[in-house]
Structures are given as structure tokens and as C-alpha cells.
Design a protein that fits this description.
- The chain is α+β, with helices and mostly antiparallel strands.
- It has 2 domains: 5-229, P-loop containing nucleotide triphosphate hydrolases (Rossmann fold); 237-356, OB fold (Dihydrolipoamide Acetyltransferase, E2P).
- The protein has 9 helices and 21 strands.
- The protein has a 6-stranded mixed sheet, with helices on both faces. A 5-stranded antiparallel sheet has the order 2-1-4-5-6. Strands 14-13-12-15-21 form a 5-stranded antiparallel sheet.
- Strand 4 (54-59) and strand 5 (62-66) form a beta hairpin.
- Helix 4 packs parallel to helix 5.
- It is globular and about 75 Å long.
């Protein structure tokens, strides 16, 4: 048995056929993937809110679920804290009483002490008497997390913990949550559809696609070496498909569907997906192409979108296949990029990863 949290399940939910196994010995594992991939289903099985056709849930040597042996502890007997998407706080209770709710079996003085201790730890001591409607989104999130940790659970389960926040507060709340999870002291299983969120919050990411885990590893490893075009696309890389063949100087040339050719230092032959991270792509006006450069890859493009992201901007490019560049805000202003502009996109062969398709 695992010393942390083990969840293994094979079941059908609607059109989804789930067959997945995850283990978290320590730290935080993010279950990441698009909607309908099976992330929340696996979390609900861990919490005891859904019984699979076949499955196991072990935590610190205790059996919470073993369908083959007929074991199935109810949710209230599984020592796990759960934070739901919209936090599920009791609207008529104060922050203090929400945190203390899960401690009803303790003497009242102990309940008060434990709730006050957690509110202090999460920077909410001065908001102890406030009700959820009077708290900010980030404060509600912290109250929900404090309530989940109050009974000293053996595992912590979080279902899209930032989805209820608006874009303005999400970035700050994400940083706060990352800090809190590092100090949780128990295995954490977190569900998200956002790879950037998973990368900031989790030690490892397990990517789900149609009920299967298709790759697991550190966020940087997944972004650098995706096992498939699906993983590359999910991690934010541009994916260009074509036919690969050997080229001079030990390179591989890829003839892109729709036109154009790029080079990679990876070896491959036949149908491939070529991936490149947006920050590897440089952009220059078509009438002022860049000077001497070691970048082997050059594609003519039209600017489709310019999306500010703090001090950066994502630039969507129309080429024979969609391409994305990530530039500094200063670069976008200096180039005066706007939709409809003709540009040249360049990047190095060493930045181009190839995966079979």
C-alpha cells in the first residue's frame, strides 16, 4: 500500500470511459486536461462521492475503497479535506464558524482555538466574524481551504479551486494558494483545466485525455518534452503537422501541411507534429525582416490577434497552420503590431520538438 494517496478507477460515466491510476506520496499532483477528460470524476471517487465499477482508494495504509473486497468507506469517514469549485461555504455562518464546522466532535474551546489558529495562519484573523458575502473571492478561497484542513485530514482534494474567481484576482490568489499548498503537510490532489495554473500550483502534472493519463511529470518536463501533439497543445505550445525527412547537417526537415518548411534538431521520418513554445518565436515586420540570425525557421504570417498578458502579449499568427508568439509588451509597442499586419515569424531548429502522429 502507498504511504500517501492512491486512486485507481475503471468506470463509465456518461460517454466517458475512465481508466486511470494516480499516486501522490507527498506534495501536490495536478490532474489537468480539457473539460470531460475525467479529472473531477477521479477526484469524486477519491472523496467517496462516486463509486466506480472497479476501483481502489488507499491513504496512508488505510483502505477507503476496494470494490473487489467490498470495502467502501462513506465520505464522512474518509479523512480527506475537499475544496469545491465554488467553495460551498455556509452563507449564514461567519468565516470562523465555517472553519469550525468540521470540528463539531471536539469540545467548544478546542473548536474555537483550532479555527482561530487556522484563520491566523491564512491571514484572516481580522475577518473571522465576516460572512461569505462580505469576503472577497480570495478570502472565500482561503476560508474554504482552512475549513478543509481544520480536521487535520490525511489528504487534500481541490476541484478547480480558482475557477470561481474573476480574472483580476485570480493571479494573486494563485500565488497565495501555491504558498499555502506547500505548507499543507499532506498529499494534495488538484483538478484544473489550465496548464499554467497546474504548473504554478503542483509539483507534478498528470495530463488526462478522454479518461486516460497520457503523460505525467514535472511541469517543465511536460512543456519541454511533450509525449504527443495533444500534450504539446495543452501545455501551450504551437503544433504544426507535416511530413519529416532527413536533411543536411544532421537536421530534420518538415514539409508542413498547407505549405512551408521548417527544421528541427530532433530525428524523425514520416508524419510528425512539430511543437514550438510561443516565447521561442520572434516576430518582425515583413518589410523589415530581421538581420543575420541563427534561426533556421522562417514563416510568412499575418497577425490575427494581440492579447495583453500583464507585461507580455500573446500574438496569434495566421500561417498555413496557426502559430503563436509571446512577446514583451514593449516589443509589441515598438513593432506597432495590430491584426492584419504582415510579419515574418522566426525560431531556431533547436526549439522545435518533433513527436510522431
Amino acid at each position: 500500500m502507498t504511504s500517501g494517496l492512491l486512486v485507481e478507477a475503471a468506470t463509465r460515466v456518461g460517454a466517458l470511459e475512465l481508466a486511470a491510476r494516480v499516486e501522490v506520496e507527498r506534495g501536490c499532483l495536478a490532474l489537468a486536461g480539457p473539460s470531460g477528460a475525467g479529472k473531477t470524476t477521479l477526484l469524486r471517487i477519491a472523496a467517496g462521492l462516486l463509486r466506480p465499477a472497479r476501483g481502489l482508494v488507499h491513504c496512508d495504509g488505510d483502505v477507503w475503497l476496494d470494490t473487489a473486497a467490498g470495502a467502501d468507506l462513506p465520505p464522512e469517514r474518509r479523512r480527506c479535506g475537499v475544496v469545491f469549485q465554488h467553495y460551498a461555504l455556509f452563507p449564514h455562518l461567519s468565516a470562523h464558524d465555517n472553519v469550525a464546522y468540521g470540528l463539531r466532535r471536539l469540545p467548544r474551546p478546542e473548536r474555537r482555538r483550532r479555527a482561530a489558529e487556522l484563520l491566523e495562519r491564512f491571514g484572516l484573523a481580522e475577518r473571522a466574524g465576516a460572512r461569505p458575502r462580505d469576503l472577497s473571492g480570495g478570502e472565500r478561497q482561503r476560508v474554504a481551504l482552512a475549513r478543509a484542513l481544520a480536521p487535520r485530514p490525511r489528504a487534500l482534494l481541490l476541484d478547480e479551486p480558482l475557477s470561481a474567481l474573476d480574472a483580476r484576482t485570480r493571479a494573486g490568489a494563485r500565488r497565495e494558494l501555491a504558498s499555502l499548498l506547500r505548507g499543507a503537510g499532506v498529499p494534495v490532489l488538484l483538478v484544473t483545466h489550465d496548464f499554467a495554473e497546474a504548473a504554478q500550483l503542483a509539483d507534478e502534472v498528470a495530463v488526462l485525455d478522454t479518461g486516460r493519463i497520457v503523460q505525467r511529470g514535472a511541469p517543465a518536463a511536460l512543456a519541454l518534452s511533450p509525449a504527443s501533439a495533444f500534450v504539446a497543445d495543452f501545455t501551450g505550445a504551437s503544433v504544426l503537422v507535416g511530413m519529416a525527412r532527413p536533411a543536411p547537417d544532421g537536421l530534420t526537415a518538415v514539409a508542413l501541411e498547407g505549405g512551408g518548411e521548417i527544421a528541427s534538431t530532433d530525428s524523425a521520418t514520416g508524419p510528425v507534429a512539430a511543437t514550438v513554445d510561443p516565447w521561442e518565436v520572434a516576430v518582425a515586420p515583413a518589410d523589415r525582416p530581421p538581420g543575420p540570425t541563427s534561426a533556421r525557421n522562417r514563416l510568412s504570417a499575418t497577425v490575427a490577434t494581440v492579447t495583453p498578458l500583464g507585461n507580455r502579449a500573446r500574438v496569434g499568427l495566421e500561417t498555413p497552420q496557426p502559430l503563436t508568439a509571446e512577446l514583451t509588451g514593449a516589443a509589441v509597442r515598438d513593432l506597432r503590431l495590430a491584426p492584419g499586419d504582415r510579419v515574418v515569424a522566426t525560431w531556431k531548429a533547436t526549439a522545435t520538438r518533433l513527436v510522431a502522429r
